[in-house]
Design goal:
Helix 3 packs across helix 9. The chain is 44% helix and 20% strand. It is built from ten helices and 13 strands. With 308 residues, the chain is of the alpha/beta class. Strand 1, helix 3 and strand 2 form a beta-alpha-beta unit. The termini are far apart. The strands form three sheets. The chain has a six-stranded mixed sheet with strand order 2-1-3-12-4-13. A five-stranded mixed sheet has the order 9-6-10-5-11. A two-stranded antiparallel sheet has the order 7-8.
Length: 308
Protein backbone atom coordinates (compact mmCIF):
# COMPACT_ATOMS: atom_id res chain seq x y z
CA UNK A 1 0.00 0.00 0.00
CA UNK A 2 1.36 3.36 -0.97
CA UNK A 3 2.01 6.12 1.49
CA UNK A 4 -0.74 8.09 -0.13
CA UNK A 5 -3.28 5.31 0.52
CA UNK A 6 -2.19 5.02 4.15
CA UNK A 7 -2.59 8.74 4.69
CA UNK A 8 -6.05 8.63 3.18
CA UNK A 9 -7.08 5.80 5.47
CA UNK A 10 -5.83 7.68 8.54
CA UNK A 11 -7.86 10.73 7.56
CA UNK A 12 -10.96 8.58 7.15
CA UNK A 13 -10.47 7.02 10.62
CA UNK A 14 -10.11 10.43 12.26
CA UNK A 15 -13.25 11.70 10.57
CA UNK A 16 -15.23 8.56 11.55
CA UNK A 17 -14.01 8.81 15.17
CA UNK A 18 -15.18 12.41 15.42
CA UNK A 19 -18.60 11.48 14.10
CA UNK A 20 -18.97 8.65 16.65
CA UNK A 21 -17.81 10.88 19.53
CA UNK A 22 -20.42 13.48 18.59
CA UNK A 23 -23.23 10.94 18.72
CA UNK A 24 -22.14 9.77 22.15
CA UNK A 25 -22.06 13.32 23.43
CA UNK A 26 -25.62 14.01 22.25
CA UNK A 27 -26.92 10.89 23.98
CA UNK A 28 -25.32 11.99 27.27
CA UNK A 29 -26.96 15.40 27.02
CA UNK A 30 -30.40 13.89 26.52
CA UNK A 31 -30.02 11.68 29.59
CA UNK A 32 -28.87 14.55 31.76
CA UNK A 33 -31.76 16.73 30.56
CA UNK A 34 -34.42 14.29 31.66
CA UNK A 35 -32.98 13.91 35.13
CA UNK A 36 -33.31 17.54 36.31
CA UNK A 37 -36.94 17.70 35.19
CA UNK A 38 -37.85 14.56 37.13
CA UNK A 39 -35.89 15.28 40.30
CA UNK A 40 -37.80 18.36 41.48
CA UNK A 41 -41.05 16.59 40.81
CA UNK A 42 -40.21 13.82 43.29
CA UNK A 43 -38.94 16.24 45.96
CA UNK A 44 -41.48 18.99 45.48
CA UNK A 45 -44.20 19.31 48.18
CA UNK A 46 -46.79 19.69 45.42
CA UNK A 47 -46.00 16.20 44.22
CA UNK A 48 -46.16 14.64 47.68
CA UNK A 49 -48.77 12.08 48.67
CA UNK A 50 -52.38 13.28 49.12
CA UNK A 51 -52.08 12.79 52.88
CA UNK A 52 -49.00 15.01 53.13
CA UNK A 53 -50.52 17.62 50.85
CA UNK A 54 -53.70 17.65 52.90
CA UNK A 55 -51.78 17.98 56.15
CA UNK A 56 -49.77 20.96 54.88
CA UNK A 57 -52.82 22.78 53.57
CA UNK A 58 -54.72 22.23 56.86
CA UNK A 59 -51.89 23.56 59.01
CA UNK A 60 -52.26 27.28 58.18
CA UNK A 61 -56.05 27.01 58.63
CA UNK A 62 -55.85 25.42 62.08
CA UNK A 63 -53.16 27.78 63.29
CA UNK A 64 -55.22 30.77 62.20
CA UNK A 65 -58.12 29.76 64.48
CA UNK A 66 -57.61 31.70 67.72
CA UNK A 67 -58.92 30.05 70.91
CA UNK A 68 -62.23 31.42 72.15
CA UNK A 69 -61.78 34.15 74.73
CA UNK A 70 -63.24 33.24 78.11
CA UNK A 71 -65.76 35.70 79.56
CA UNK A 72 -66.09 36.19 83.31
CA UNK A 73 -69.66 36.56 84.58
CA UNK A 74 -69.98 37.77 88.17
CA UNK A 75 -73.25 36.71 89.80
CA UNK A 76 -74.26 37.74 93.31
CA UNK A 77 -76.36 35.20 95.20
CA UNK A 78 -77.78 34.11 98.51
CA UNK A 79 -75.82 31.23 100.01
CA UNK A 80 -78.54 28.55 99.95
CA UNK A 81 -79.79 27.26 97.62
CA UNK A 82 -78.85 29.91 95.04
CA UNK A 83 -75.05 29.71 95.27
CA UNK A 84 -75.23 25.91 95.43
CA UNK A 85 -77.27 25.80 92.22
CA UNK A 86 -74.81 28.16 90.54
CA UNK A 87 -71.91 25.94 91.63
CA UNK A 88 -73.68 23.01 89.98
CA UNK A 89 -73.82 24.73 86.56
CA UNK A 90 -70.35 26.31 86.81
CA UNK A 91 -68.48 23.43 85.04
CA UNK A 92 -70.98 23.40 82.17
CA UNK A 93 -70.59 27.15 81.65
CA UNK A 94 -66.80 26.76 81.75
CA UNK A 95 -67.07 24.43 78.75
CA UNK A 96 -69.01 27.15 76.94
CA UNK A 97 -66.41 29.84 77.57
CA UNK A 98 -68.05 31.47 80.59
CA UNK A 99 -66.09 31.73 83.83
CA UNK A 100 -68.83 31.96 86.48
CA UNK A 101 -67.69 34.03 89.47
CA UNK A 102 -70.17 33.42 92.31
CA UNK A 103 -70.26 36.14 94.95
CA UNK A 104 -72.19 35.17 98.10
CA UNK A 105 -73.78 38.04 100.02
CA UNK A 106 -74.58 37.42 103.68
CA UNK A 107 -76.81 40.49 103.61
CA UNK A 108 -79.27 39.88 100.79
CA UNK A 109 -80.36 43.50 101.03
CA UNK A 110 -77.08 44.48 99.36
CA UNK A 111 -77.56 42.36 96.24
CA UNK A 112 -79.68 44.86 94.33
CA UNK A 113 -77.48 47.87 95.20
CA UNK A 114 -74.43 45.86 94.11
CA UNK A 115 -76.09 45.14 90.77
CA UNK A 116 -77.08 48.76 90.30
CA UNK A 117 -73.52 49.93 91.05
CA UNK A 118 -71.95 47.45 88.62
CA UNK A 119 -70.17 45.37 91.26
CA UNK A 120 -71.86 42.27 89.83
CA UNK A 121 -73.34 41.40 86.42
CA UNK A 122 -76.48 39.66 87.71
CA UNK A 123 -78.08 38.57 90.94
CA UNK A 124 -80.03 35.50 91.95
CA UNK A 125 -81.92 35.64 95.23
CA UNK A 126 -85.27 37.35 94.75
CA UNK A 127 -88.73 36.90 93.27
CA UNK A 128 -90.60 39.39 91.09
CA UNK A 129 -93.04 40.60 93.78
CA UNK A 130 -90.09 41.54 95.99
CA UNK A 131 -88.33 43.34 93.12
CA UNK A 132 -91.54 45.19 92.23
CA UNK A 133 -91.95 46.30 95.84
CA UNK A 134 -88.54 48.01 95.97
CA UNK A 135 -87.53 48.99 92.44
CA UNK A 136 -89.39 52.30 92.22
CA UNK A 137 -88.28 53.51 95.62
CA UNK A 138 -84.65 52.53 94.96
CA UNK A 139 -84.57 53.56 91.31
CA UNK A 140 -83.58 50.14 89.97
CA UNK A 141 -83.62 49.82 86.18
CA UNK A 142 -83.45 46.04 86.05
CA UNK A 143 -84.67 43.24 83.80
CA UNK A 144 -85.70 39.69 84.73
CA UNK A 145 -84.23 37.08 82.38
CA UNK A 146 -85.53 33.72 83.63
CA UNK A 147 -87.39 31.94 86.43
CA UNK A 148 -85.39 29.18 88.09
CA UNK A 149 -87.07 27.82 91.20
CA UNK A 150 -89.71 28.33 93.85
CA UNK A 151 -88.91 27.99 97.54
CA UNK A 152 -92.37 27.37 98.98
CA UNK A 153 -92.59 29.50 102.12
CA UNK A 154 -93.70 27.48 105.14
CA UNK A 155 -94.97 27.70 108.70
CA UNK A 156 -92.64 26.23 111.34
CA UNK A 157 -93.07 25.69 115.07
CA UNK A 158 -90.98 24.24 117.86
CA UNK A 159 -93.99 24.06 120.16
CA UNK A 160 -96.90 22.71 118.13
CA UNK A 161 -97.40 19.77 115.79
CA UNK A 162 -100.32 21.14 113.76
CA UNK A 163 -102.08 24.44 113.06
CA UNK A 164 -105.04 23.20 115.11
CA UNK A 165 -102.85 23.24 118.24
CA UNK A 166 -102.18 26.96 117.97
CA UNK A 167 -103.73 28.56 121.07
CA UNK A 168 -105.73 31.74 121.17
CA UNK A 169 -103.39 34.71 121.20
CA UNK A 170 -100.50 32.69 119.76
CA UNK A 171 -97.45 34.73 118.78
CA UNK A 172 -96.71 34.31 115.08
CA UNK A 173 -93.53 35.60 113.45
CA UNK A 174 -93.77 36.98 109.89
CA UNK A 175 -91.20 38.70 107.62
CA UNK A 176 -91.28 42.49 107.76
CA UNK A 177 -90.35 43.22 104.13
CA UNK A 178 -93.46 44.15 102.10
CA UNK A 179 -93.68 41.32 99.56
CA UNK A 180 -92.83 38.48 101.94
CA UNK A 181 -95.11 39.88 104.64
CA UNK A 182 -98.00 39.80 102.20
CA UNK A 183 -96.97 36.32 101.13
CA UNK A 184 -96.94 35.08 104.74
CA UNK A 185 -100.36 36.58 105.49
CA UNK A 186 -101.83 35.06 102.31
CA UNK A 187 -100.50 31.66 103.40
CA UNK A 188 -102.16 32.03 106.80
CA UNK A 189 -105.37 33.08 105.07
CA UNK A 190 -105.27 29.98 102.84
CA UNK A 191 -105.11 27.88 106.01
CA UNK A 192 -108.21 29.61 107.45
CA UNK A 193 -106.32 31.28 110.30
CA UNK A 194 -107.06 34.87 109.21
CA UNK A 195 -108.89 36.82 106.50
CA UNK A 196 -107.43 39.80 104.64
CA UNK A 197 -109.47 42.65 103.27
CA UNK A 198 -110.38 42.50 99.61
CA UNK A 199 -108.60 44.49 96.91
CA UNK A 200 -104.99 43.85 97.88
CA UNK A 201 -103.38 43.69 94.44
CA UNK A 202 -99.87 45.08 94.95
CA UNK A 203 -98.32 42.16 96.87
CA UNK A 204 -98.30 44.33 99.97
CA UNK A 205 -100.14 43.83 103.25
CA UNK A 206 -99.56 44.14 106.98
CA UNK A 207 -101.50 42.85 110.00
CA UNK A 208 -103.52 46.07 109.75
CA UNK A 209 -105.12 44.60 106.62
CA UNK A 210 -106.55 41.62 108.54
CA UNK A 211 -110.34 41.84 108.82
CA UNK A 212 -110.96 38.52 110.60
CA UNK A 213 -108.69 36.84 113.18
CA UNK A 214 -110.66 34.06 114.96
CA UNK A 215 -107.77 32.97 117.22
CA UNK A 216 -106.69 36.54 117.94
CA UNK A 217 -103.19 35.72 116.72
CA UNK A 218 -100.51 38.24 117.64
CA UNK A 219 -98.04 39.04 114.89
CA UNK A 220 -94.35 39.71 115.41
CA UNK A 221 -92.96 41.50 112.35
CA UNK A 222 -89.21 40.78 112.10
CA UNK A 223 -86.33 40.66 109.67
CA UNK A 224 -86.64 37.41 107.72
CA UNK A 225 -83.16 36.23 108.66
CA UNK A 226 -83.93 36.41 112.41
CA UNK A 227 -87.06 34.25 112.30
CA UNK A 228 -85.35 30.82 112.53
CA UNK A 229 -83.50 31.95 115.67
CA UNK A 230 -86.70 33.38 117.12
CA UNK A 231 -88.69 30.14 116.91
CA UNK A 232 -88.15 29.19 120.60
CA UNK A 233 -89.82 32.46 121.62
CA UNK A 234 -92.76 32.12 119.23
CA UNK A 235 -95.66 29.75 118.73
CA UNK A 236 -94.67 29.59 115.11
CA UNK A 237 -93.31 31.61 112.21
CA UNK A 238 -93.65 31.84 108.45
CA UNK A 239 -90.09 31.44 107.14
CA UNK A 240 -88.53 31.54 103.68
CA UNK A 241 -87.13 28.17 102.69
CA UNK A 242 -83.62 29.42 101.91
CA UNK A 243 -83.40 30.61 105.53
CA UNK A 244 -84.76 27.29 106.75
CA UNK A 245 -82.04 25.45 104.83
CA UNK A 246 -79.32 27.78 106.10
CA UNK A 247 -80.52 27.23 109.68
CA UNK A 248 -80.38 23.43 109.16
CA UNK A 249 -84.10 23.09 109.82
CA UNK A 250 -85.76 20.16 108.07
CA UNK A 251 -88.09 21.71 105.45
CA UNK A 252 -90.32 18.66 105.79
CA UNK A 253 -91.08 19.75 109.34
CA UNK A 254 -93.23 22.66 108.13
CA UNK A 255 -96.79 22.42 109.48
CA UNK A 256 -97.98 23.77 106.11
CA UNK A 257 -96.45 25.48 103.09
CA UNK A 258 -97.23 27.05 99.72
CA UNK A 259 -97.95 24.75 96.83
CA UNK A 260 -95.93 24.58 93.60
CA UNK A 261 -98.19 27.16 91.92
CA UNK A 262 -96.67 29.96 93.97
CA UNK A 263 -96.03 33.17 91.98
CA UNK A 264 -92.82 33.67 93.96
CA UNK A 265 -90.32 32.06 91.61
CA UNK A 266 -86.72 33.09 92.21
CA UNK A 267 -85.29 34.79 89.15
CA UNK A 268 -82.10 35.98 87.48
CA UNK A 269 -81.98 39.78 87.44
CA UNK A 270 -79.66 41.99 85.37
CA UNK A 271 -79.32 45.66 84.52
CA UNK A 272 -81.70 46.58 81.72
CA UNK A 273 -79.93 46.22 78.40
CA UNK A 274 -77.79 43.27 79.52
CA UNK A 275 -80.47 40.61 79.12
CA UNK A 276 -79.36 39.73 75.56
CA UNK A 277 -75.67 39.32 76.38
CA UNK A 278 -74.33 35.94 75.31
CA UNK A 279 -73.00 35.02 78.77
CA UNK A 280 -76.36 35.84 80.42
CA UNK A 281 -78.26 33.74 77.89
CA UNK A 282 -75.87 30.83 78.48
CA UNK A 283 -76.43 31.19 82.23
CA UNK A 284 -80.22 31.13 81.78
CA UNK A 285 -80.04 28.06 79.55
CA UNK A 286 -77.82 26.22 82.04
CA UNK A 287 -80.09 27.03 85.00
CA UNK A 288 -83.21 25.78 83.22
CA UNK A 289 -81.77 22.52 81.92
CA UNK A 290 -83.06 19.01 82.71
CA UNK A 291 -79.86 18.42 84.69
CA UNK A 292 -80.70 21.28 87.05
CA UNK A 293 -84.28 20.07 87.44
CA UNK A 294 -83.00 16.68 88.56
CA UNK A 295 -80.42 18.30 90.83
CA UNK A 296 -83.12 20.34 92.59
CA UNK A 297 -85.39 17.37 93.03
CA UNK A 298 -82.62 15.10 94.32
CA UNK A 299 -80.95 17.60 96.65
CA UNK A 300 -83.82 19.68 98.03
CA UNK A 301 -87.05 17.72 97.54
CA UNK A 302 -90.07 19.78 98.62
CA UNK A 303 -87.92 22.70 99.76
CA UNK A 304 -86.89 23.91 96.30
CA UNK A 305 -89.22 23.29 93.35
CA UNK A 306 -88.24 23.87 89.68
CA UNK A 307 -90.12 26.78 88.11
CA UNK A 308 -89.44 25.78 84.49
Amino acid sequence: MSKKSVSLLLVLFVILGGILAGCGSNNDKNAGGSSPSASPSSASPSAASPEASSGESASPSSSSEAPKEEVTLKVGAAAVPHAEILEFVKPKLKEEGVNLDIVVFDDEGQLNPALKDGQIDANYFQHVPYLDSVKDEKGYDFAVTTKVHVEPIGFYSNKHKSKDELPEGAKIGIPNNPSNEYRALVLLQQQGLIKLKDGLTTYEATPKDIVDNPKKLKFVEADSATLPRSLPDLDGAVINTNLVLEAKIDPNSALFREDANSPYANVIVVRKGDENKDAIQKLDAALTSPDVKKFLEDKYGVAVVPAF
